[in-house]
Amino acid sequence: MLNDEVSINEYNGLKNVNKLYEDLDILMNDEDINEFTAFVFEVTNLSRINKFNDYSISRKSIQYTIDIAKEIFDKCEPYSLCNNEFVLILEESNIDATYKKSIQFLEIFNNPILINNVPINLELKSSILKYPIHGDKTEIFCNNLSRSLLQEGREIDNLSIFSNSLADVFQKEHSIMCEIFHALNNNELRVEYQPIYNMIDDVIIGVEALLRWDSLKMNIGEIIDIVERHDLINYVTKWVAKEVIKQLSEWKKKGITTKVFIKVSSEDLKNDYFLNYLVKSVEKSDIESSMLGIELTERCIYNNIRSIEVLLNKFIKHGFEISLDNYGTGYNLLRNVFKYPCHNIKIDKFFISNIENDAAYSFIEGVINSAKEFDINVFAEGVETETQFMILQSLGCQVIQGYYFSKPLKPEDISKQLMLAKEQLL
């Protein structure tokens, strides 16, 4: 039997995970209990409530949800998985019955509640699990309780029934994360560079840094998605930046000067951390910030819409060039995107692949004409055929990137191209 010091959550006074493990062990070893259900929920906006209200209000808000949960679920005592995640272990073995009560509980929070006369909007997401279907051992069942809150495709009112396939996904992603971490620390990753070509001046004006992993059994885009979900993307972006700065320094010693664009994620732009890392790394090197550019997607803007304009202006102030990547696939209307500071727009390869289609042609033409008004360069990425090249040229698009001109190249191969381009200019 655990004492209170190790079995109680100090923040809310509820039984904690240690006590949950102990009680589940007892339940699962009871021969008279063959089935039970669990309702797990998370107050997803607790940190935001903390930021804009007194600390006491957030605590009272949590207490309110706990009291309502007890009332709806027949005075069942919740356990606290952490300060904003809770689980109720229910005697009810019928998922449908638990589902109905769960909906009843969640509907109460469809409208703001009053705490100290302050209207508070509590945002909840939740899931239902059943023993032994969703775990026949304590550790497995507890792991699935937390995982269930990450499950996509929720049904009504942010409620879902846990799927065992999610556990398989987590196991696979955990294995991939371990491999990536090992690869980062053992130089198994590398960077290739794809030239960006100015068709008017007939010169390479820069290159895009692309992450490569030779032992990879998945698409690199899928790997990046997994890394983002598991909060390792900042580490990966920093690693790429470090390799690029090292390469730029080597090129500079050989008299080669070019610009390298690095892809960044929404997580990299949530605050100034990556910007500060980049600034300090450039200061410690012998390169200039003008030799670096960052590529962000429309999703980066959408996910950081309140702070992105200020942050992008900081990048520009420090001399970094900004490109908006995969343009046309995201969240912004054409007339809105020009509100954000950037030097270049890269039209997504989907539109380039379909350039002979009237709708894609009109879209590309509109982007090129609008960009000219705002003095923004337009890059066409994913150019693979002469027909695409000729149509883009007729529309006045000056910059292309894609296999029609060059595939991504290893550092030694792109070095030869850049050196040759330098010699041709002499």
From TrEMBL:
InterPro entries per UniProt: Cyclic-di-GMP_PDE-like, EAL_dom, EAL_sf
Name of this chain's protein = EAL domain, c-di-GMP-specific phosphodiesterase class I (Or its enzymatically inactive variant)
Residues covered by the EAL domain = 173-422
Report the GO molecular function annotations.
cyclic-guanylate-specific phosphodiesterase activity
Q: What PANTHER family does the database record attribute to this sequence?
A: CYCLIC DI-GMP PHOSPHODIESTERASE PDED-RELATED (PTHR33121:SF79), CYCLIC DI-GMP PHOSPHODIESTERASE PDEF (PTHR33121)
Origin superkingdom: Bacteria
Report the source organism: Dethiosulfatibacter aminovorans DSM 17477
